[in-house]
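Chain X:
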Amino acid sequence: MPDRGGGPTGPRIRAGRPSRRVRTLLVTLGVLAALAMAFTMFAGFWTDWLWYRSVHYSSVFTTTLWTKIGLFFVFGVLMALAVGFNIWLAHRLRPPLSAMSMEQQSLDRYRMGIAPYKTWLLLAVTALVGLIAGASAASQWRTWLMWVNGVSFHQKDPQFHRDVSFYAFDLPWYRFLLAFGFATAILSLIAAGLTHYLYGGLRVTSPGSRASSAATGHLSVLLGIFVSLKAIAYWLDRYGLAVKSSDFKTTGNWTGLRYVDANAYLPAKTILFFIAVICALLFFATLWRRTWQLPVIGFGLMVLSAVLIGGLYPAIVQKFQVQPNEQAKEAPYVQKNLTATREAYGIDHTKVSEYSGRSSTDDKTKLRDQVGQTSSIRIMDPNVVSPTFQQLQQIRNYYGFPTNLDVDRYTTKDGKEQDTVLGLRELNLAGIPKNNWINDHFRYTHGYGVVAAKGTESDDKGRPVFTEKNLPSKGDLGTYQQQVYYGEKTTTYSIVGGPQKEIDYSDDEGEKTTSYTGRSGVNLDNPLNRAAYAVAFNEPQILYSGAIGKGSRVLYNRTPKDRVESVAPWLTIDGDAYPAVVDGRIQWIVDAYTTSNGYPYASRTTLGDTTADSLTANNNSRAVVAQQNQVNYIRNSVKATVDAYTGDVKLYQWDAADPVLKTWMKAFPHTVKPRADISPALMAHLRYPQDLFKVQRELLTRYHVTNAQTFLSGSEVWQVPNDPSNDSSDSVPPYYLSMKMPDQKQQVFSLTTTFTPNGRDNLSAFMAVDSDPRASDYGKIRILKLPTSTTVDGPKQVQSQFNSEPSIAETISLLSRGHSQVEYGNLLTVPLDGGLLYAEPVYVRGGTLKYPLLRKVLVTYEGRTAFEDTLDEALDKVFGVKGSEPPSTGTTEPPASTSPTVRQALEDAQKAYDAGQEALKSGPDWDAYAKAQKDLQDALRKAEDAQSKVDKPRTSGD
């Protein structure tokens, strides 16, 4: 016999089995890996908790967490118990194996193999199905909270007369319970069937009975439970018809019952409910009869009924009753859809007025004077001039402005409100002199200041007239906290408040440093916190860097939309957060919506598709959060603010009547402040949100009519026109501007848009909503409907006229010579004395200038078009008379107290300017134009030098 230690078999045995040292090493590595995974999971949980605590919304975190845990354990345990009990019961009901057939002999090997591990196998199977079921249930935390906290809408659906809350809050939870019941019944049936087969209760090839009496009874009860659940499903399907979506050939997307639903599907579901109840009773009766004959017959009858009653009969009704007279049959149901959709989207009080589209007076002087009274036409397009802000006010490369600036209202020194284009000078990490971990996260941590400009004016060079500028920013906004630690471009984390000083800003005297003194962010004094964030951010240096010390805090989740969405995960966030200076602080204002997909009869819309336009196509940051959400109810129920310095998030109840918001406020108490807490200073900067307006205007393309017959005919379907200013296939964005509609007495800050007929380019309607919450009619939608008997030019046609006018086309060609590029601004539409005034700024970007400057303004009114240097000049030409106000020519006028030298220099500037314009008109003579421009620059420079100790000259548009 060979020696065990040195024979041929000894080494093979040792080679096939690892040594004790290797086994110890493997166990150690396994334990370390398990600990690393556990700490990684813990780090995610711990950092989330710390963040919610830092923003004082820890109740949101704990409520959500405990709800998920509760659902996970309750439904996980229920599923595990159900499946485990049925496996145990099937095993207990196994028959004695006296006669062993070939089939049973084959199975006997498996029975013997699992016999020692039956308990562990049972626990493993039940644990697996329990984990899956629990995870699925935990994802339904919103559904549970809405069901348990739901409040009444005090509105009933027109078919079943149930409160809308039943469809919005109750029905989704019942459907989840039903789905869980089906999954439990099916898994139990499969598990019991396999166990019965393994232990001989079910036989496939063995002689004699195919199923034992015990197996027959057990499986029949499970099938009876399944069919009972199907009966409940048929009953709930009746109510589901009220929120069912379908395609309707005459109206497109459709929600609610139609004629065939009410007269075929509804009675069919009721009949199938009773058939399923009878079938379930037959299955339960098998406990006593021990035969499958009646249950199988009943089940076959149910399937046949589902085909004939639930499928064939409705098709016959649709073919022979509805189609021959569709409008008459569908009209009552269309009327219900019209009413519900208008209520669900808040467009039921829209005021539609007939508008002639033609001026009612020939008095050109009167029309010219009415322009200023009707609208403050904004020639600074916030979606074009961002590069101009960037070039003139960036100051340092590590600052940047958003691609699309914002429009707001600010009070001037003389007490008048004016439309203002503004943006924050935010941090731009791409412009940091040297990118490294310290610079990116410790030294360059924030932006600085607001830059604002008049929306209705430009200076003599086509640049914005800044009302707040420079670094630090100074101007009309007064004194305010200028550091911007939270903004739309701030997407990375910063560590502040510790030993490492931050770059505050730079001026002629050099860099200024600062250290963050706010209480925002999470304290990193605790080693556990540092370790957790090192793992969460995948940055080991956080754990040992000397730049982190006493007082260090980490700031993250820094964009306004992210912060609001995190503290209120039950809200849908508007795509456009905008800044405002309120009570000495920069506040980001974020509009938020409550939505539902369960409003009976209201047609659905996909938020991402409905809110898309030419701006969101080029700037994803302006896209609405939860883009693919399908909803059929929406309210702007919450106004939120995020402090740009401290990051503090405040939620204010805006729509006190919204039952969805009331439900969430019950679920998350003390998270939403009452509307009364909104200060007057903040109220002055709130506005009607763009995304809600875009959803409403899309619905109003069809739902502006209130008559079912007209709706069905499709004769008055509108469309939102494509953006004509950039030849885009995307919808034109809505525009903010101060204006007054024909039934208003004074201008109101408004949000406006236009409509064209479906498939045509002429104008069919103009829509505006009062956007100033201080006005009595805030949120009131007004539509001016143009006559169908005559045509009024729409935006695309107006743009085409601009481009095809020979003199305009020639000037455009000259402006775009060389490397220059012409850019069209927002094409604004303003109702004026029965007609429609269009105005569009034209910018030129080129040569050594890398930013657009306003060069021309296009204006048209009732076929008369002007293309001039300033808005006032264009208006004067269109109406043939000069306005009573001095024209905003962009040239300078000497104030009364100027010196003779200044007056003479400004007169020379005016002469040079006039000479340049004359040179453009005659020929053009480019040599003469160049000489005139040089003379103009020399004269202005001389005037500026002479006036250095006198008040700044005012522009004629001031």
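Chain Y:
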Amino acid sequence: MPAPAQNSEDAGACTLVWEVLVLESDTGEAIPNAQLALRAPANPSSPRLRTEAFLHTRADGRARVTGLCPGPLQVTVSKAEHDSRRVHLELSAATTESLVELDALHGHHDERVIVVHDDSDPTLAASESLSGAELSRRRGAGLADVLTGISGVSTLRGTAGGLGKPIIRGQFGRRNMIVFDQIRHEGQEWGIDHAPEVDPQAADRVTVIKGAGTTRFGPEAAGGVVLLEPRPLPRTPSLRGEVGGFGYSNPLGGGGSFRLDYAPKRGKGLATRVEGNLARHRSALTPDYPLDNTGSLTWNVGARIGYISESIDVEVGYHLMRQQLGICTCLQISTAEEFQRSVALGQPVAVDAYRADFELERPRQEIWHHLALARTRVALGHAGELHATYSYQFNDRQEFAIVRESVVGPQLDFGLATHSLDLRYEHAAVDLRRWTLVGALGAGLTQQRNEFESTASLVPDYEQWGWSVYDIERFVHDRVEIEFGARYEGLHRSAALAERDYLGQQAGGRIDAEACEPTADNGGTCKHLFNTASATFGVLGRPIRRARDFTIRGQLNSSARIPAIDEHFMNGAAPSFPMLGLGDSRLGVERTWGGELSVQYAGAWWFVEAAAFSSFVDDYIYFVAEQQEGQCAPLTCTTRGPFPVFVFQPTNALFNGGEVRFDLQAPRIPFALAGSAAWVRGHDLEAAGPLAFMPADRYSLTGRYLFPDSRLTTRAYLELGGTVVTRQTRYQPELDFAPPPPAYVLLGAGAGVEFLGEREIYRLSVTGTNLLNMRYRDFNSLLRYFADEPGWGLQLRFAVDFDVALGS
């Protein structure tokens, strides 16, 4: 690609040629479509640099630039999922050849790189990732909102601070595992409104595995896995980082973030990082009224230090999250008639008194989450590598209900401490003539203790020990990959029930008499021992020899999930969602038998994927509404007012559905088109009806205009998109308190641009949501019984990426 003619007093001298080959440092593979930003002198005698051209490498990783003048040339080479590289050249010969190697930020960023044991591609299940500029455009949002737009993923919207939980193919909560920095997140999930306490701003890539990941991650991954991967520490001497900020119009607020990485020249292999972010916003606004007391305050800080070499890596780190979340005043109801009137009116009965302010009143949640880690990687020569990680997490959650003014402090106080140790041996690749065997063996040990203090009841104190072993092996051929995985898990749990909880479960016939025995204080001690096995079998094929970008994936799995503490012993209501939840200690292991099939083509200018899945769940633990009779029907009367009742009960369930997504960008045409569709069906086989909480069908389409790169800007775009969510028609009226809301359409738009400095990249974007200011309620929002979702809003984000090379 010829560069634009340069200003020169002797134009005839500008006839030099520069040829470059861009490779990945670890694999030696060519990197196609890497962006090259050239800066050349305005004339041969001037040392001043200015941007002259942008171009991209071809499919073979090469690029050729002609018409260059003698003198210095500075080139910035960048590619998603890789560290950028700056090259300084002195042009004098007629043709100058260069080789540029980029370091991959994460393993298995490309289908052609086979790394079975890497955390970012642990199984052959369908997955989808966000990174780079796409992830940067979602900074400041909660985890569930960051994942919005990934096909097959929707949100169980909460009532506190606008947060929620991701729903992956109809599964949510404890069936979806969240892994932050290779560590399984442990938090307070015994509350349908308890959002995961993780910091998506600390992630450089977010990957959703849509399907069972139990063999690699454990039984909580029966529905799917969300992987949050921070940017690796730098391997070469440098000072690099990012500083950014964001502002929202609805809910009004904003915040900022920073990350600073330092690798000194005189301490080869050493690297450090400090990072943090802060966000605060006031109550959100629906098209007609404010959602009173839904503001939030969140901040995160973290630090780590590591030593990196060819033979050994050592890293220690610490991360702290602090959240204060207001819970919508609209949830407070004094009588069953008031609840029914609110549903009939389509708005809270006391909406005239609502305000949009920053004050966080009762009810509210306050959370501290601590994460400390230490890990190492040891190269074992021709035998492979050994990885070890120890982590400690402490989750401190307090919930404040509306009480008399004389009462201070929280009504619920949880303290969850978790120690975990994970070992993984990645054996070296074994050559089997036309096949290669790669894989990993692992083992894990966890100890967890929960202490619960409150003036009410919800879950008991407990202590549990867990252990696991697993093996994942993949046979790799030029056109076929076959994977086998197996895992064995054990868990021992001892729970101490107070008198009210023990007698309540006895009276309701929900006590496991074989595992529980009374204590001297009229309470009870319940001890459960679980041993479970899981297995997967997957195949990836490239059936067309000349079209290696066309792949077919299939997977069969059998996953076992152990009941969580709230499913066994929940007995009470939390301020975060005023419902009475009842557990059953007789519940046993939940067994899933599932499979999926996907077809994908990832060409140079278009991508398309279609997937179908189905799973049968034996003894599916169903958290479902139970309508009551009596004075407060369909709610139940308590001393704190009328509450809806939700119970855990077993059933046999069948899930099936599918997803389609595509991304089209024809060459030399400045337009791109992307879209997706997702369908989920859940069936209660015993009741012969649909399961509750299944997401409605969802369709999205986005068109984007791509501006040409210039001397000042790159990757500039303007986009317009819409999302259609249909009305959920598959539900059982007797298992719900209000009919499903109508279908709705959300219109969004956005614009963004990048500016390249000599050592910096400046990113700026603006996004508009619900631009039609549509009044709507989502079937999977806990708020839908009480109020509407927020109206239109704008989000502005900016960031500066900088990198200062310190030499070798």
